[in-house]
Amino acid sequence: MISEKEIVQYLSEIIKSENKFGCILSFFDITTLACFLYYADQKIDIALMETGIGGLHDSTNIVNPIISVITSIGEDHKDTLGNTLNEIAEVKAGIIKLNRPCVVGRDLPIEIFKKKCQEMKSDIFQAEESSKNSFNSQHEKIIE
């Protein structure tokens, strides 16, 4: 776990840079950057990262992922990402990177993601419905 001392160190470093370059970062930008600095110092091999505000305009979008995953789209994003689910999907598709596979949830507007994957020369996979019983049996095997 990251210590409070390390958090303060990273945040101080970021704020000094922000002042030096005259840029204004959001709270999410600052915490994401602190996370990246911590990961670099820890020399991690893999990070599982979640976007904060969608995709296209998200601070995490500077990462070139191994794979992009878009699990869901909800009406709760209308205030920031678009007025319709299709508009929201287009913004979320912004995380799809060149030649990187993408997995999307089964109830999403697949055509929007197919189009973006085609543009980015990325393979697309759509999640399939799994039964509760198959999850339970897998879960039980893990516990054993």
Fold and architecture overview:
Helix content is about 45%, strand content about 5%. The chain is mainly alpha-helical and about 140 residues long. The protein folds into 2 domains: about 1-45; about 50-144, no CATH class. Helix 5 (about 110-120) links the parallel strand 2 and strand 3. Helix 1 (about 5-20) crosses helix 2 (about 25-40). The longest helix is centred in the first third of the chain and has 18 residues, at about 5-20. The radius of gyration is 18 Å and the shape is globular. The model is unreliable at about 135-144 (pLDDT under 50).
Defining traits:
three-stranded parallel β-sheet, mainly alpha, 144 residues, disordered C terminus, 2 domains, globular
Q: Can you write the helix and strand succession as a string? A: HHEHHEHEH
Ends: how far apart? Answer: 28 Å
Mean pLDDT: 85
Low-confidence sequence ranges: 133-144
Largest beta-sheet characterization: 3 strands, parallel
List the domain count as a whole number: 2
Q: What fraction, in percent, of the residue positions are helical?
A: 40-55%
Which class of secondary structure composition applies to the elements?
A: mainly alpha
Strand order of the largest sheet: 1-2-3
Question: How many strands?
Answer: 3
Number of helices: 6
